[in-house]
Fold this sequence. Notes:
Chain A is α+β, with helices and mostly antiparallel strands. Chain A has helices spanning 16-23, 147-181, 185-195, 197-206, 223-228, 242-253, 258-278, 285-303, 315-340, 342-360, 376-397, 400-404; strands spanning 40-41, 44-52, 58-61, 65-67, 69-77, 86-90, 93-98, 108-114, 117-122, 130-136. In chain A, strand 6 and strand 7 form a beta hairpin.
Amino acid sequence: MPLFNPIQSLIATTGLATLLALAAGAGAIAVAQDGSPAPVENGASQVKITLAGDNGGACILDHTSAKAGPITFAVTNKTATAIAEIELQSNNRILGEKENLAPGLPTVSFTLTLGGGTYQIYCPGAKQELQDFTVTGKAAAEPIGSTAEILASGTRGYANYVDGVVDAMVTAVNRLKVDIDAGDLAKAKADYPLARPFYERIESDVGGFVLPGFKATDNAGNLDYLIDMRASNLDEKVGWHGFHAIERDLFQNGRITDETRKQAAELQKNVDTLDSVVKSLTYKPEDLANGAADLLEEVQNTKITGEEEAFSHYDLVDFAGNVEGAQQAFAFLEPGMDKIDPELAKRVTGEFATVKALLDTYRDPRVSGGYKIYTAELKAADAAKLSKSIQTLQEPLSKIAEKVATIH
Amino acid sequence: MTDGSRLGMSQNNHLSRRDVLFGTAAGTIGAATCTAAQAAPNGVEDVVDLTQRHAFYGVAEQAGIRTSPQRNVFYMTFDLTSAQRSDLQILLARWSGAIAQLMKGETIGQVEPTRANGVGFDTGEALDLGPASLTVTVGLGPRIFTDTYGLSHQRPALLRDLKRLPSDALEPRLTGGDLSLQACADDPEVAYHAVRDLARIAKDTGAAATRWTVMGFGRASAGKGETTPRNLLGFKDGTRNVMENADFDKFVWILDGPSWQRHGTYQIVRKIQMHIENWDTDRVSDQNKVIGRFKISGAPLTGTGEFDTPDFEKKDADGNFIIPLTAHIRLAAHENNGGIKILRRPYNYTDGINQVGLLDAGLLFIAYQNDPAHFEALQVKLGASDALNEYVSHIGSAIFFVPPAPQEGSYIAEGMFA
């Protein structure tokens, strides 16, 4: 810990006084700090954290220790332009935090109940980013219902969700195959969008599977390629496979051929393989967060562009699938996030609601799949609006992974 | 401009634009001081020093208005996406803190977080590029001052939407906005990085989303004592710009009203498309008459030097005005507009090639004035009669109140939330 000059008041360090202090190399920021534990008010220890811009930015605690029990951290950014958030960590796990700290904003606080031990105050962007905070008294056993356990429980719930989605995909793909085998073009075209959303909900979890005996770089053994390759990522050596090969035959060529039947059979087989693989999957909390973020990237890169369903234009069905998958992944993290960073959790929940409300305006029960056809006209008129709604969700969502990540 | 033919004197850590832009700076600082060739034609040394920086915090106007125009601009407007007053406060506070960092040439946070699952705060592309004289100027659009944010009573007295002006060909997608960022720097990547990262903060806080943007290059106005640069018509632009303190106080700064508005100003932005390929095939005598000046010297058609005062009464032997009645400088001159002046801070822009295969370029016209009616009065006149109208279209437009600079420990427009 740096030493602080207890005489100079904080206010006096702005302006000229700051310049003088810096010139003298003192970097003086003054908060009373005598090593005593934080005072207790209203049943909670009170710790004041002041963010100041001197010396490259610093988070200054008025007390660096407190008694075990409820502790309230009140954070005020006076002049630190480089610091926008602060966290309380235990061995790299975030127990509580505040974001959106900027000079001039009112003081914000968070309260945690901590057992005895050493914790870290983390100030990303400060000259010294980590400093210890000591809690004296009885070390708390990892209580039942701890954030880590809540998150772990969420990951198990999510694994069940993925299983359910893939089971439904197996059924829908079987139905599509029956239509194709029967040569019923109209029915196959109607059932195609009904088979699509499942993969879009969970594709971020299954993107890396390679069939036994293949190299990771060989698309011929890449389950994701075999199921969901698009014209835009066609590997000429491996050729057309999966959903979009069928889409091309049904919607562009308008014919069911032997090749279509062969593709449908292969798709069914690969989806069955997928079904067995996902049953063995387990997830870490950050997998859910990163997966949700990946699904939103998918929306931006291949749905809003109209690239995913280039022949059938059912892109909004896939869009809704990606969003639902991301929302489910987040929902399983939400109880844990409510403990770590309730404001961020609320914001992400709110942004998902906004996106869903926007998507609802594109619903059309007359169209198979339930959403309007994403025509060139609709894309020209609405792509920017759709993209912006996702962008506004992407930024806060992208922050969740590091908050829920556990050490291994 | 004649950058390519000029090797700036390098002294006092000043690197010539050529040195800096050609990436030879580090190796040639010493050499350049010995071999430096010639100064600009008028004797004024015109160099870019990427280590220069401007202060963000202050007690008067924001930087980027009176500041000597930097070489590049990245201008963007935003729509508010939250109806929460506190979201707007948080956005302005986070923008302020971040701008203070950026103008120092520092990152706004971690580029490469230590945690593997972390996401960088700062996107990183401006690392090691220096401050490059970056200024980021924040504007507040008319819709901020509404009951939605409890700010109706704080509306600056003259802030309103611009009235419809003659020759307006405005495209909705290039018009309006609730917030504006004018990032100017001597390195385009520094300006781009600033707005890019500030736009991320807007999304992150959920307060605002991008609306329209223009990337401008080759400042088309000069600061006091600097060589007047040229716009894409090839003519000098801004010869008779506001330069003196007294004129800034009279025409640019708002000096009355609530204290949080003092040293504020109104920013009017127009995206003016220039039909440059038509212009390029116009005979030079006509070009000179359209503008009212000689192309190379910048002298009014009635004079010989750039800064000669135009004689709007002078006629030729046939009795015709030498500076035609429809000449741009006659219609825009303060002598012919009740003494009105506005501070012009425009930049050239290009959007590539348009749908019919023509070069798509023009002027991002940014003006500062203490009464939007001043701009309107000038543009009513220009829009109706300017000979230049044949070669330009006003396709984008917006107006913002630019509050004064915050003091350290505060943020832009904090006073309006009091």
